[in-house]
Amino acid sequence: MRFLHTSDWHLGRSFHRVGLLDAQAAFLDHLVATARDREVDAVLVAGDVYDRAVPPLPAVELFDRALHRLAEADVPTIMISGNHDSARRLGVGAGLLGRAGIHLRTDPAGIGTPVVLTDTHGEVALYGLPYLEPALVREQLGAAKSGHESVLAAAMDRVRADLAARPAGTRSVVLAHAFVAGGAPSDSERDITVGGVAAVPTTVFDGVDYVALGHLHGSQTLTARVRYSGSPLAYSFSEADHRKTMWLIDLGADGAVTAAERVDCPVPRPLARLRGRLDDLLGDPALDRHQGSWIEATLTDAVRPHDPMARLTARFPHTLNLVFDPDRADSDSLASYAQRLRGRSDQQIAEDFVSHVRPGGGLDPAERTVLYGAFDDVRVDAATTEREGGR
């Protein structure tokens, strides 16, 4: 059986204030054409369909058109909600859509109920694990602890229990939206850390034949059977070196992954990160190849140049982001606040603040537990408000 594995569409998102709706439409055209031309048996969408819980109407219309085209092409689609999606909103009409071959899995209660497809070798059970906010689903799933690993383990127990009751030889696929250990993050994913821990081990998914992951925006292989498709478009300059693709997965009669091919996605415009003194960037002929790219320029001039953005855009018309990082011997102490925070989680920033205002000692284990608990409570409150319709 052949699957097309994709995730993290983030419909409605922009890139440094540049609208991406046309690029997202081109990607969906490409997805439908690939599913049809490569004779795909099912499309797997591993979460973050939208960029936010209440997406803009043009994004909803784009999503609606894509579902109609997949249904018309008679390509079954299994789709889960991610941490950016509103599970309740995305799941509206799931029963009716299922009759058209569009299977939305947004409710944790349905984790142990697969979509079953059949080929000449027998049945394949496809289980959708929507993004599981630990504090919200722990009790429902009977998880031992309120953490990502615990709730995913409880969810997978339900999957394995259902699979064990099926005929011997039934192949299995799981869709999940999570941060799995070994994956490389980028700047554009929302932090899902709980209690200071974000990643879960690949062993959580033992017992199934293929795991289609979403959340991380870079395409990557954790094991032969556990993969991230990555996002189809770049959503931050940290993804400048990404090759944006979907996975075309062939599952053999015995459940082994017999082929895994990366199918390239359309690139609306390449990304480039340039660094150096302004005059050097403007005068270097080797940079001519970037004149059509979206540019992030980091200027290292010791003194901020006059009108740098206008001068850069005269040569690089698509310059979107400007960063100043002066070459100074004491650059660490003079680094900008944004630079010092880059790549750090909310919890790490808070710990640094406590250490700064209380010289001579950081947080002890009890204080760290209280701090992490406070962040978890805020996250749960926000998720509960969104789940109840924004009231």
UniProtKB/TrEMBL annotation:
Q: Name one Pfam family in it.
A: Metallophos
Q: Which residues form the Calcineurin-like phosphoesterase domain?
A: 1-218
The record, for InterPro entries, names:
Calcineurin-like_PHP (IPR004843), DNA_Repair-Maintenance_Comp (IPR050535), Metallo-depent_PP-like (IPR029052), Mre11_N (IPR041796), SbcD (IPR004593), SbcD_C (IPR026843)
- From what superkingdom does this record's organism come? Bacteria
Coiled-coil positions:
none
Q: Which GO terms describe its molecular function?
A: exonuclease activity
Q: Which family does it belong to?
A: Belongs to the SbcD family.
- What is the name listed in the Swiss-Prot or TrEMBL entry for this protein? Nuclease SbcCD subunit D
The organism of origin for this protein? Streptomyces roseolus
